[in-house]
């Protein structure tokens, strides 16, 4: 029972991050399930089955708040579904010994990308509530995001959300809401791929239900928070958490000594804490500068 409650907390935290940042549920949950001892394929299958429910809740919440561009949802989600099915089939066919370090490497790389992306070059902010991107851009993006999502146990958000935000053509709340909503198609296709290739007998439904329960509670809160929290700080914090949860598997695969592993963890933790603090300070300085500029403009107008 204690394990299931802990997984519900994981689902809550992961969905809170995912719904407000546009990424994080899959990579966070899968990383922790791997630590708990699940095989890569079963961890990814469990997460994607749970995401079927959290995606609906998150999508509905974002839609109610006006954060969804349905044209973007379809143009991105449909090719994403094909990529996810292919990724689930691929992961189901390789051995656990090979899949575990491969998945940890994918998750670690995604975590590093998220951390550096938000620490060094935060995504541009646009105001357009409808995405101007065409199928020429969205179809390959969806295919790549879906494949990475299924093979890594997560990745739809890190690939899709960051790419769309980096383009700087669509409002962040619309990007996050639309990517979260389109993820239902990706999760559905990945789940079907795992079920066809692995069956249902090996899936621990208690894990699925616990993750789903926590995620359902967090979904409406995250949709409300999307325009009210500093995404840069959360991006750096979440990226570091994802890397930390996968470092042990990567260190084990590289056959480092216990002393080297300890030093590696300490060094990364120090760098991560410093980057998080620096990002928070930079965000606060920019916020103060913008407030001062507004006050000066209002004073000039009053004169």
From TrEMBL:
Coiled-coil stretches: none
Q: Which GO terms describe its cellular component?
A: plasma membrane
InterPro entries, per this entry?
A: TM_pro_TauE-like, TSUP/Inactive_protease-like
Cellular compartments annotated: Cell membrane; Membrane
For this UniProt record, the keywords arranged alphabetically read as follows: Cell membrane, Membrane, Transmembrane, Transmembrane helix
Q: How does it sit in the membrane?
A: Multi-pass membrane protein
Q: Where are its TM segments located? A: 29-51, 72-90, 102-120, 233-251, 263-281
- Chief location bin: membrane
Q: Which Pfam families match?
A: TauE
| Family, per entry | Belongs to the 4-toluene sulfonate uptake permease (TSUP) (TC 2.A.102) family.
Name the PANTHER family for this protein: MEMBRANE TRANSPORTER PROTEIN MJ0441-RELATED, MEMBRANE TRANSPORTER PROTEIN YTNM-RELATED
Q: What is this protein called?
A: Probable membrane transporter protein
Taxonomic lineage of the native organism = Bacteria, Bacillati, Actinomycetota, Actinomycetes, Propionibacteriales
């Amino acid at each position: 029972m204690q394990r299931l409650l802990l997984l519900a907390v994981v689902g809550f935290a992961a969905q809170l991050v995912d719904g407000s940042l546009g990424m994080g549920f899959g990579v966070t949950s899968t990383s922790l399930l791997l630590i708990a001892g699940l095989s890569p394929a079963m961890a990814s299958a469990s997460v994607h089955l749970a995401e079927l429910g959290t995606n609906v809740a998150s999508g509905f919440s974002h839609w109610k708040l006006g954060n969804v561009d349905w044209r973007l949802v379809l143009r991105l989600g449909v090719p994403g579904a094909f990529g996810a099915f292919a990724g689930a089939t691929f992961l189901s066919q390789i051995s656990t010994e090979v899949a575990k370090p491969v998945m940890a490497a994918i998750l670690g790389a995604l975590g590093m990308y998220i951390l550096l992306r938000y620490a060094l070059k935060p995504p541009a902010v646009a105001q357009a509530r409808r995405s101007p991107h065409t199928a020429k851009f969205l179809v390959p993006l969806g295919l790549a995001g879906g494949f990475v999502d299924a093979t890594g146990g997560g990745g739809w958000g890190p690939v899709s959300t960051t790419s769309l935000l980096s383009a700087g053509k669509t409002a962040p709340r619309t990007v996050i809401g639309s990517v979260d909503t389109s993820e239902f198609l990706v999760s559905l296709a990945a789940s079907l791929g795992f079920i066809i290739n692995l069956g249902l007998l090996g899936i621990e439904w208690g894990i699925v239900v616990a993750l789903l329960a926590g995620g359902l509670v967090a979904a409406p809160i995250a949709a409300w928070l999307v325009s009210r929290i500093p995404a840069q700080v959360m991006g750096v914090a979440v990226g570091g958490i994802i890397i930390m949860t996968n470092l042990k598997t990567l260190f084990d695969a590289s056959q480092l000594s216990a002393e080297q592993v300890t030093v590696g963890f300490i060094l990364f933790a120090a760098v991560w804490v410093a980057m998080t603090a620096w990002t928070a300070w930079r965000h606060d300085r920019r916020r103060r500068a913008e407030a001062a500029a507004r006050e000066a403009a209002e004073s000039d107008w009053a004169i």
